[in-house]
Amino acid sequence: MITSQEEIAPRRGEKKKRALVLWSGGLDSTTLLAIVRQQGFEPVALLFRYGQRHAVEVEAASREAVRQKLQHHIVEIDLSAIGGSALTSGEIDVPRGRELEDMSTGSIPPTYVPARNTIFLSYSLAWAEVLEVADIFIGVNALDYSGYPDCRREYIDAFETMANLACKSSTEDGVEISIHTPLIDRTKAEIIRWGVELGVDYGATWSCYAPHWSAAAAEPLACGECDSCILRRKGFIEAGVSDPTRYR
Q1: pTM score above 0.85
Q2: I want to staple 106 with a disulfide (CB 3.0 to 4.6 A). Which of 102, 186, 217, 219 is the partner?
Q3: Domain range 16-207, its CATH number among 3.50.50.60, 3.40.50.1970, 3.90.1800.10, 3.40.50.620
């Protein structure tokens, strides 16, 4: 795990190491992208269009990637064919108005997408090996989140162990694959403050699970009621930072 910029920052005159960043265009992963740059890496972003009902996040991320001249790749997979989640199935409602206590102590909500992070990390592992990249960053968080099991440190540690047993680069060439999670123990407010320090434009990020198309505004608006919107709003309030989100 990365603990300081000095540990990995390149020496003067050295070429920056590349790092693969799982990026959704949301608050956490966009902050992560800025952190990766701060840590001295050249980021390469991997985005997923996986049949999510809130695919507006991919469009927002794609626009931002072009603006930042960021090397990126969009993976097209259809997890809606499997279903089992409110984010991929129109037959399951996205929970609205849940209490914060229920998010942290209740059962796993229907917005959990079965094996999503395992699928995403597997794709990233394959691309990282092709690109000869040893460092993979993912913006999972185990504090202000909805209780997903694949956001916990023990899951990430287990995947990292598996990755180093599964790849040619690690088993034959001696490359040590690292899965970095600098946000895992941060509150949403701490993440936002960190991002503000790094110049992140949160107005260009998207978090809502149930966007509403506004004909008047000619753009999608955040619902303000799903878990992701509630946690996002709470984070800005606790950080003392103005929330640029356009809510319904």
Answers
A1: yes
A2: 102
A3: 3.40.50.620
